[in-house]
Amino acid sequence: MGFTIQDMMISSEERYRMKYLAGKNGWSNSISWVHLVEDTTIIRHFWGKELAVTTGLGFPTKEALMELARHLVQRHAAGLIVNIGNYIEKLPDGLLAYCEENDLPLLTVPWEIHLSDMMKDFSIRIFVQGSTDEQVVNALIAAVEQPDNQEAYRKKLLPHFDVDGTFQVMVIASEGLDSMDTVDRRKLSYRLQVYLEQITHNGSFFYYNSFFVLVANAITPELFIGLGEGMLKRARKRMPDRPIYVGVGSQVMDIENLSVSYRRAEVAARMAMRTKTALLQFEEMGIYRLLYSCTDAALLAQMKQETLSVLEEHDRRHNSNYVETLQCYLEFNGSIQAMAQSMFTHRNTIIYRMNNIKKLLGTELATPAERLPYQIALYIHNML
What we know:
This protein is an alpha/beta fold. Helix content is 50%, strand content 14%. Strands 6, 7, 8, 9, 10 and 11 form a six-stranded mixed beta sheet that branches. Strands 1-5-4-3-2 form a five-stranded mixed beta sheet.
């Protein structure tokens, strides 16, 4: 997950006498770059994940500091370091409260610290960690694409993960990702990473196969779901015009089974997008687990056509709703009373329609075996 606020604190708490004052939920924010900020103009060009450092020269009042923090939150910054002692003696309580509420890490270093040395140190660490992360991502993709070729990924991942432990994949989808400009897609990636809390180097986030992917190692499924829910909550608040959908794969044991969790997460993400469901777990999909896992779209369309085409044609010609009526019939196991209540239609009308449907289909729909093909066809109808 890159060089994070946590990494920075571990390496800098003593060396730079750094203190962490607020925004504790941003502990795992990864840092893309470090900028010295003395006015808000430069922040307009932030992509996300930038760490802002200020002496306070351009922010002499409480109101100015609050404005700085608001700009950083709007631009999805990784955090803010304030150089205390000359222009700013003490940070206002309102700033601490705002950073805590918006998960923006707020840190201080004393005036005696040479900011240029500190920023150079962080920049080198960001670069080194970025190179390592790229190698990790390539190895994880190899694990997804070539699970049987363990030489391509196992040893490479061993220094970074418990490769014998549990893995779980989250696939994050949004409309038009594959057609987005590379720069815009990277900006969106940075924002989503800032929204993910409580995961640092037991996870990896990357773009693959038209989706954003989060791989987590050795965390509980409950915590993993919480990560997705928290990210969605922050995305809805900060990017209301960009719907995000999350599919969660099964937890698997050992890195060689990562491909299983990935494929299931992708299936769940595709159904989540289709049904406009914010977060969907593979295990919650029922029979759709099989249908969305089928890569032969032509076969699915053929199965639906063979079974429902006569009703679809009747609906087109007569402006009727026989497909909907059949679906309701199967849902309520043939109960005319339940169908009438659900469809707000008189029971005699329901009986009339069902008699016509049975004639058109050439079946009485009397047994589970007779009903099953139509149940499957209707599931396909709903997903296409």
